[in-house]
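Appendix B, record 7
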Amino acid sequence: MEESVIYKLSKKFALRMRKLYVILTEIRKEYVISKQLYRSGTSIGANVAESIYAQSEADYTNKLKIALKEASESKYWLELLFESELLNQQEYNSLINDINIILGTLVNIINKVDKK
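Structure tokens (predicted):
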């Protein structure tokens, strides 16, 4: 089975969240927001992966809508980390760009399925 674009994007983002979590906890000594971001940031891909074997079209869109909520939450945590000066401008821009692409992709997929 060929991996979808959203699957690849969300998996890449989850791997970035893993690396960021290590940096935030071990180097920058931030434990609370980093854990929240790690959970929501990796949950995006987990829900996308679950959607692949959805039992129905409704189940499929539900999994993607959960992934969308997790992506939105991740964006919020990234904003807090940046505004708390735990992410520099370059780190923030790169991560926000990734999450905005994921958000847009999920919205497009959900809208296409809902229009059927």
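Remarks on this record: DSSP finds four helices and no strands in the chain. The radius of gyration is 15 Å.
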